[in-house]
Batch of 3 targets.
Target 1
Amino acid sequence: MNKSRLVLTLKSFTPEELKRLGEFLNSPYFNKSKTLVKFYSELKKSYPEFPEEKISKEILYRKLFKDKEYNEQVMKNLISDLNKLCRDFLTVEITRADSFENRLNFLRQMILRKTDPVFFSELKNFETELKKTSEISERNFYYLYQLEEAKISFHLERNQQPLVFDKVLRSGEYLILFFLLHLTKQFPTLTSTSNHSMQLMRPIFPKYSSTMLTWNP
């Protein structure tokens, strides 16, 4: 157990993350198995080292099922289910930490649900926020590109193909700006570590300059 994927994942958690994982597992929306919650509680007692003599499958099984005969398949299922829920928990944590990605996913849902007023309101707010900054940012260009893609999806879902053309052009422009800015930042590293990379880059940047681009939203 000590070298299992589940335990290696739990070892990587901070105490605060373990606490939130416990709350996650206790939510009926994510998990309905009380045995799984108990399994996690017993396993967590050995954090952070998780010594094998305390978390062997046989020992944990006795703590969970008392005098019942050991069942390997039951333990495999518990480990697999908890491992999956740990991945789900981390996915939720990552998503919550990225407000831009959250808002983009919300827009995509509004497209599919055909809640057009909500879509346009959120789109306007998001776009305004991205464009109001004077900072040159790969992240901003990337999400401006994604917003144009969302507009394209919106019109295609509603059979409004004639309204797509200008969005396709702007989408391409933002994607190119994202690519150029990213490449400009990575170019010194590429050229210092690989002659092959430098040869590939020369047709794109024959005379490399670190001069920053001007952001004109």
Target 2
Amino acid sequence: MARIHLLIAMALFFAIPTANADYPQPSNNYINDFAGVLTPSDATLLRNQLATLERETGIEGVVITVRRIVDYGTGDASIEQFATHLFNRWGVGNQPANKGFMILVAVADRRCRIELGKGWGNGLNSQMASIINQNMLPRFKTGDYNGGIVAAVGSTISILRDRNANPAGHLSAEAPPHSVQRHPTQPHPAQAPIARPLHLASSSLMSPILIFFGFMLAIIASLVIIVAVLAYAIRTGSFQTATRDRLTDDDTFGSGTTNISTLSSFDSSSSSSSSGSDLGGGSSSGGGASGGW
């Protein structure tokens, strides 16, 4: 019984960061420079480039800079987790193609990531890594965040335009994540000797243990969901007002208007904002590349 109480306490402990997660909200659909590293002229240049890309190809791209990931209290342990969750929360990329991309720079963490939508698969991961290594990291090491981001956006747009125009002409050299590369001298599975199960008594004893731990994990998952829903319900009353107050001064561009994107939750439900959203509701499964300096 004491063990069950301990597991419940652990579940509540880990549920609190999820329930209180406060991912940044988009100030517009293309450039969200929360860390303040882009010059106004380059921010406008990048926004125009991304708007043109979306208009001509349907590919949505977003640039985001933050100071530290931990400042948002999301519980994400890495920039990869933060980028994937934020990508899906904002819904980057038009459905059903899911060909969006996000360039994320965490300045104080000295980490960056290019996150790709599901529609790109894993075939572009090495090219995204090359963009980071060649265009971003050398400039970031000297403090030129503005130059690194401008170069990365240009290179990413070029690669994705090309792949979008010629999807069949680019066979990925990367092996699928779960593929097996068989050596030429390795015998065919039909020729390999069949392994006979040993220690049947030990295997039969493991089954009840696995069932028990599976049952406990299901209980923990249920508790996490319940706590998250309750926390969200408590916060809902002040959420809309806080959103409007935070976004009144966020637009740094000359148009004088702000596009507020609807933030889709992790279970694909959405909460509406006062001015609607132009983001397409896309999602990512974690494709892309990361780097640090």
Target 3
Amino acid sequence: MKEYRNIFLLLFVAVLGLSVTLCTRYLTGAQNAPAEPINLTGSTVSSGAQAQETASDTDRDEAPQPVPGPVGETKEGTAYAAAPDAGEAKEAALSPLETAPEEADVGERAEGAARSDAVNPYLVRLEDLDAQIRLNRDSQGQASSTNTAARNLANSELKLWEGELNTIYNTVLENVGPGETGALAASQREWLRERDAEAVEAAKNSSGGSQESVEYTMSLVQSTRSRAYELADQYEYLLTALSGTDQGE
């Protein structure tokens, strides 16, 4: 009986020692193991996964979100994006209907440039005659200071200007509309009366003197010259067009 009691005591001590060892190992492992965080849903996540998810959330928060534009409806009822802004519209290709006004503008500019390049040949002739007369006066010099030379010079200039004036007047008269010929002829007759009256007044400055006839003729020269330039400017569109027609033929 005593032997059974000793065996039972040894078994009890062995079981107790094993239990103490197991408890000690369990407690030591629990203390050394890292604690895992618990999310709000109750499931555990590793610290690395949590950091990666946090970084992703931060990137999404910082990234600029597209601003939706106004939405309309097509004929089928589906939504479509708003029209591009002004910057995008400049880069967008234009349709043929949109480019047509620009092509028309180019044509108008080209036509205007052609009109601006056209030259009135009658006006050029008048300017050339002015230059010729200045050269002639300079070449005469002292010779034109005598009464006879001055009178001859004035008569010569008058013929030149009357020739140019008659050319311009007759060209315009033959090519204006039927309703303008009467007014042009009446205007020319009125101008002739005024020209002669002004010449008479100019001659009075040297009445009875040797320069009377010269003053009279030089007044006619100035009036005729002015009238030639006046008609060339007034009917420039007609004279320039006639010149272009002649060149085309």
